[in-house]
Amino acid sequence: MTSRRKRGRITKAPRPSAPQPIDGAGEAPATEPTSRVSNLALRFVTAGVGIPILLLLIFVIPQPGFFVVVAGAIGIGAAEAITMMLPRERDKLYVGVPIAVGLSTILYLARAPAAVAAAGVGLVVATLVLFLFRPGAMETTAKRLSFFLFAVAYPALLLTPVGLLHRRSDGPWWVLLVLALTWLADTGAYFAGRFLGRHKLMPAVSPAKTVEGAVGAVLAATVAALVVVGFFLPRVPLWQAAILGAVGGVLNILGDLSESMLKRSVGVKDSGTLLPGHGGMLDRVDALMFTGPAVWLFAELIVGT
Fold first, then answer.
1. Range of the domain at 210
2. DSSP letter at 14?
3. ∠ CA 71-282-242 to the nearest 5 degrees?
């Protein structure tokens, strides 16, 4: 046994304590249930406050005001994406966020294909000029430029359709449909995965997600679509609503997994800390950014004005 002398006496060196086992989330298993319960409670509290506010924004404020809310979410999402992908270039936020919001505004106001094309060209040119004058390390410029371009376009292109959906004559109900698809799919995935989950869905991307949870998400989204369409969107046949709900459930999972892939690739747990218990803006709208465009295309191309 190791020993040491101290003032003429021999004392035993303290025995190192055994390391506590740590699980994948960085918490000791003994504290995991409490942590999980407290986090779930925080999520419910945040949702209980946020959902009434969202419903108020959807049904009370006029269309331009609702788009301002969407544009704000796009700006926050772009800031989170730039921070995740270019953590050492926070100065790019001052250019990237306005570009993202500007691109979304052009898409919202555009009435002609030429305007949409001009917005895309402007995004690429503005990004190239920005890095031309502030290139940083030349050997990584192309990679960082690509990161920046994606971080700006990702929320701008995929969230703007929610604002376009609200602009329809029955737009608030369509936005409610998108939110119901997202919320119910998330809820169905959570409970089906927790109580029935046995088979991992894509463990390399998101270890906690299961095939059973994915099935629960699709079923819950289908029910959500049938309920919202059945009560508030009578022009849509229920069989189309069922298909839209099932597709929305699949897209919900793909959106969630895509955001998990991005976060895992840059080594972060959450995109931000905007919402207690829910992470950042991108953590909350990742599925919405897939379901929103799909529902908007369905409303425009299948249902019509």
1. 170-305
2. P
3. 90
Cα separation, 256 vs 173, whole angstroms: 23
Cα 194 versus chain centre, distance: 21
Asked if residue 125 belongs to a domain, the reply is: yes
Phi, psi of 175 (to 5 degrees): -65, -40
The parts of the chain modelled with pLDDT lower than 50 are 1-33
Q: What is the mean pLDDT of the chain?
A: 85
Q: What is the pLDDT of residue 45?
A: 66
pTM: 0.82
Per the domain annotation, does 27 fall within a domain? no
Inside any domain, residue 16: no
Question: What is the C-alpha separation between 276 and 195, in angstroms, rounded?
Answer: 25
At 39 the pLDDT is 57
Q: What sign for the dihedral angle of Cα 18, 22, 27, 29?
A: negative
Residue with tokens 């379901």: 291
